């Protein structure tokens, strides 16, 4: 999905939902040729001209987080892989990069079709409603697990990667005028989310304030999308309830085994004991934070649940709660109550 967002920048997030849905449909069917549509550099191009090298030569070495992808970094696509595909655990990215040569999309498609289940994690789909055509498609037999997390923890996590998320936050923020207005009047919400200096007067805002403004505004849009999804799920027909479930991050890290069993039961899949052990170990690491927010590693996720209390200011907490209060209420996240820290 990253390729699509980059290629269609600065298109707003809501406008991209249809393209995301179509890409998901293709990926679930192991048709990876759709990725070539978005591999070309942004900008106008003659549709009759040959595809640029970036699209024509697209390989496994630039998609699906390939360095830590079990399918790409194991046999048969990688005969010299240090670990077998059946072994449950994290992939050594450095070892994969050293021993696994790039493969064509056709080879990856052929391998994909051997699997009875295809799992896709996506963080750019803004509307559950966009998936309804896929959920109705009997050929896909799709199940959707929607993961939620305390918005204050989300904001804290995103602030650590503010520069890396800036472009995407702008795309999400540009969707605000298209979303249904809820909660306080729009001008009140903007005043809550704008840092000092962005309303005019005084010195120009510092770059970190600009980045925080875009991230905060994007979080408001995300929370309103959550609210629409939660309300849709509450009045969903029986067929949709059978194919859709919700998961709170906090419940997963507190009871990883129980939640894993519930999710796999929902998907109609067995629960390998080794997978239970892996999930438990991943949520019980020695530390709960990292200076590299996109690094996949074992952490003490129970401590990470409340890290926002130490790192967000009182004003930041108020801003998030003002923007996300309705969704937080439906998800049973209590407000801070204005406590001093």
Automatic annotation (TrEMBL):
This is Sulfotransferase. GO terms for molecular function: chondroitin 6-sulfotransferase activity; N-acetylglucosamine 6-O-sulfotransferase activity. GO terms for biological process: N-acetylglucosamine metabolic process; sulfur compound metabolic process. Keywords: Transferase. Residues 186-197 have a biased composition (Low complexity). It is an enzyme of class 2 (transferase). It comes from Patagioenas fasciata monilis. Its EC number is 2.8.2.-. Residues 141-330 form the Sulfotransferase domain. Pfam families: Sulfotransfer_1. SUPFAM superfamilies: P-loop containing nucleoside triphosphate hydrolases (SSF52540). Belongs to the sulfotransferase 1 family.
